[in-house]
Structure formats: structure tokens, C-alpha cells
Amino acid sequence: MTDQEKKIAPKAGLGGGGVRSRWREKSLDHGKENDNLEFSKYWSPKLIVQNVISSSKDNVWKKLEFGKNGEAFIVEKRRIKGIFTENLELHDFPFDLQDLSIVLTSEHPTEELEIIEDDEHLSSIIVSCFVDEQEWELREFVDSEIRKVSKEFTGSKNVVYPFLVFKTLAMRRAGFFVWNIILIMTIISSLSFATFAVNRNLPQNRLQLAFTLTLTGVTFRFVTNQQLPKISYLTRLDKYILYCMVFNYLVTAWHAIVTLIQDEGTQADCDFYFFIGFVIFYALFHVLFYVISLKTRYFKVKEVHQKEKIYQEKAEKLFGESWKRRKTRLNRRERIAALPSTFSRF
User: Fold this and answer.
1) CB neighbours (10 Å) of residue 72?
2) Are 148 and 163 in contact (CB under 8 A)?
3) Residues 122-156, buried b or exposed e (16+ Cβ, 10 A)?
4) Closest-CA residue to 258 (of 325, 194, 202)
5) Nearest partner of 135 among 346, 321, 307, 308, judged by Cα
6) Which residues contact 274 (CB under 8 A, 6 or more apart)?
7) Which pLDDT score, from 0 to 100, does residue 324 have?
8) Rg, Å, the chain Cα set
């Protein structure tokens, strides 16, 4: 096998911070394992962990392994501890699901190297090491995706590099935001209906109550901004809060407009119909908001369960009954010994 036909098969252990890769080396076929082998004389994939910002630990070592028919493989193992970057998609916040990934690439272009996942080993993640369990639910599977990225070096030449992305998934626990933000904003905005209980002949009292509720919503918005991600687009929670503020604004505007109607009977009828309209509008929005949020979350979770099923089938194919026994033992251990959680922001 020439260098142009090289394929390397990495396996990632996301929880342990380890990456294991191997590739064929025909010149060493039918040899013997040798700890003193000078690996610098042989071809190397020159792997790079693309999305690491800083690492306090990065150990790399190699060894020689042989297959059943004496075919030689050079195995490179890497143990890395550091801070990794991840682009979060927060359109569905706080009902979002986020990929957590390790991105592997190489200094060799695709003409010399192809990176694929090792089918003879299982990539894994240690869920018990996850320290932000109060806010996230980490799923126990690892998925892989092959990518290619083109980089332009000159005006007429683009070089394509291989990428292999190992991904697991974290599901945000939305309870904090539901009870402390959505519920409170619902209460504040629904109090706008109470302003209709004030007599129409006292518009100053109606407006005073409406302005108070609007200012309360604005103040609460400034407070909650400290808990929300600072991004350039609107999340699902941002849209909900803005709707509640716009609703308070519309109710306040109506209390000012109704005073312009001179006829008492017409004024009473318009005030009643607008009250009913506001109730229907308010109820429909909340129904749509929760239906769309739950439906989106349901289909995403369903897709996650499908990936977990594929991962478990692969594990059972590689390890058989030993995988089932290991899973049963780990689940029993997690139920008996509850690990302490560390509070930190992800």
C-alpha cells in the first residue's frame, strides 16, 4: 500500500480524552512486536485535533500490532486534556440539543490520506465524568461524520483536507428556564387582562396599571438577560419574552385608544370585543408556542434514540453478551452510588 492509498482508522474516547488511530505498514508484515522500533522512519498521518483551544496534557505514543494473518499496523494513541470549542445552535433554546465533538484532521491532503472510523473498535464516552449534569443530560453514544474542507493557497489551487468528526450529544434540561422565566413572564403578561376590570371612565387608572406591568416586564427582561446567551439572533425564549412585552404594549395602546370613542354604547361594545380578542390571541399564541416547542423537541429526541440504537447494535456486534452485561453492571452501579454533581456553566 502506497502513501497515496493510506487509510487511517481512529477511535475516540470522548470522556477519557483519548484518540486511538491505526494504519497499515506493509514493510513490517509478518514481523515481531518491537518496543524499540523507530517509528519516525515510517509514514505518519500527522493527525491534528482541530477544535482544541488549549491543552494542559497531550501525550502521544505508538506501538506495533499484527492482525490474524500477520499484517502489520502502526497504532498511535493520544491522551489529551484541554478546552475544546463547539458552535452551539441556540434557535430552540432552552429546548435545544447540542452536539459535542472532537474534530480530527491531518496535514496530508485527501490525495494522500483518507480518515475513517475504525470498525473493529468502539468509540466511547464516560458519562459519569460529566460535571454539568444539573443543566445537561449527556447521551451515551458516539457518532462519526466524514467531512472534507477545501483551503485556498493560491488563486488557482485549492487543497482539500480530510476531517473526521466524533460527536456525542447533550440535551439541555429546560426546567430552570421554564419555571423561572417562562412561567414568570406568563404571569406578568396575563395580568394585563386585569386592567379591563377598571371602569372605562377611569382611563388614567387603566393606563397606570398597564404601564406598571409593561415596566415590570422590561425590568424582568434585563434581569433574565444575565441568564441568556448573548447571540445575534433570536432564540425561542427570546421570541416568547418579546411576545409578552408586545402583548402588554397592545393592551396599553388599546386603553389609550378607547378613550377616543365618544359614544358610550359603542365604547362599551368595542372594549368588550377587544377583551375577547386579546384573550383568544393570547391563548392561541401559547398553544402554538408549546405545541411547536414540544413537537420540535420530540422529533429531535426521536432522532437521538435512533442513533443510540445504531450505536448499541454496533457494540453488541463487536462485544456480544459482554456488552449487555457491562451495561447492566454500570446501570446498577449508577443507581446504587449517586455521584456528586459539580455546578458549572457549559
Assistant:
1) 19
2) yes
3) bbbbebeebebbebbebbbbbbbeeeeeeeeeeee
4) 202
5) 346
6) 254, 258
7) 64
8) 29
* The three cell numbers locating residue 312: 448499541
Report how far residue 199's alpha carbon sits from residue 202's, in angstroms, rounded to the nearest whole number: 6
Three-state secondary structure call for residue 302: helix
Which residue type occupies 283? A
Question: How far is residue 308's CA from residue 91's CA, in Å, rounded to a whole number?
Answer: 24
DSSP code of residue 82: E
pTM for this prediction? 0.80
User: Quick one: cell of 300?
Assistant: 429531535
CB 33 within 8 A of CB 142: no
Q: How confident is the model over 233-268, as pLDDT tens digits?
A: 999 999 999 999 999 999 999 999 999 998 889 999
Rounded Cα–Cα distance for residues 223 and 204 (Å): 28
| Of 104, 118, 8, residue with least CA distance to 48 | 104
Q: Give Cβ neighbours of residue 286 (< 8 Å, ≥ 6 apart).
A: 186
Position 66: which residue type? F
Distances, alpha carbon 40 to alpha carbons 25, 36, 37, in Å: 13, 11, 9
Cell numbers found for residue 162: 480530510
At residue 302, what is the residue type? K
